[in-house]
Amino acid sequence: MRHEPLMKGASIEQFSAVVKPTGSKCNMKCQYCFYLHKNDLLKQSPQPRMSDFILELHIKQHIEAQSCSYVDFIWQGGEPTLLGIPYFEKIIKLQRKYKKKDQDIFNSLQTNGILIDEKWCKFLKKNNFLVGLSIDGPKNIHDKYRLSNSGRSTYPKIMNAVKLLKKYDIDFNVLCAVNADNSKKPLEVYRFIRDEVKPNVIQFTPVIQKVDFKIAPPIANNQHLKSDSLEIPKETHPPIVTDWSVKPDYWGSFLVAIWKEWIEHDFGNVFIENFEDSVAILLGFGSQKCTSNELCGKGLAIEHNGDVYSCDHFVYPDYYLGNITKTHQADIISSIKQRRFGLDKRDKLPTTCKQCTYLKLCGGECPRNRFTKTPDNKPGLNYLCKGQQTFFKHVIDDINILNNKLKRSVS
């Protein structure tokens, strides 16, 4: 049956849009950043900045397209604070202009924290922003990959941002990128974030980046490629991950080590997104994250010029959906191409995954990480699979302990 797109501006069930008002422009040069190269890939201007026209159009459309009683706006980059406070004051005015009656507007800002000062904190507190702060651990660990454009430590400025966010009582979460280095120091990383940073929520995100075969040197027949200590025969042609990418085994052991400490000492007091998601699924509340959902496709990425892509991790020409100056967001999110993108997460799972005991916990994981092969040599296996299974086994084994703790907490 032919799909009929929504009428322009029609409200649909809630979806999110990660907006990049500065494109990939940033005041840091993290070695593992997956977005810095977008400037060249998307042929962005040297100083990308979302115009007033595109900004207002996005806010208007995003509010129009939502049928819920609240609307979330997500501002990322690059580094969005480079736009300055006046730009975000404009955002607040536009949101008030287009807000529907009895509708709440929420804003979240993902930042590296370098520019966060007293003025920023006053603005963020006044307008009830949720802040996502990126930090990878204590100084010796954080500075391994997260340096400034000039190669200097960013740790002091980020910890100053932590101090100011606490001073102004601003809700903030921490995003910790788990890479080849800090994945070997799970408790040092966790205890530092828990005891020194003390965010509302901790999110551990694995760093996984494939090496582009198009720029790799030619390999002789029967020669083996090496990625870190992992040997991969050329004949299977799998992608190779970068040296800073986390290995599956280390990802699993990282989560398990922190899980053991969390369930013993911190359950109910420290909120770790990865763990809350698994517990929620096992207790029958369903997935809390897109990566563990059966389907995806409800999270668009919008570039500074209004171009829309299927997801923040799929900002590539093949996943281009249109531009908000020509097509309303409501029509883009419900388009055939985006619906197919969302269904592919389930439909393109290998048979091995569909029969796996842990499928309900991982949902096949993020499609961007499904680039290795199954034991029966079929494509589409999650690169992290082995580590994820190690972690999920511990979660399932400990569910009875969790149930007991939950019963005590409500009694």
From TrEMBL:
Coiled coil: none annotated. Residues 11-235 form the Radical SAM core domain. This is Anaerobic sulfatase maturase. The keyword Iron-sulfur applies. Its cofactor is [4Fe-4S] cluster. Pfam families: Radical_SAM (PF04055), SPASM (PF13186). Belongs to the radical SAM superfamily. Anaerobic sulfatase-maturating enzyme family. Keywords: 4Fe-4S, Iron, Iron-sulfur, Metal-binding, S-adenosyl-L-methionine. It comes from Photobacterium pectinilyticum. PANTHER family: ANAEROBIC SULFATASE-MATURATING ENZYME HOMOLOG ASLB-RELATED (PTHR43273:SF3). NCBIfam families: rSAM_more_4Fe4S, sulfatase_rSAM.
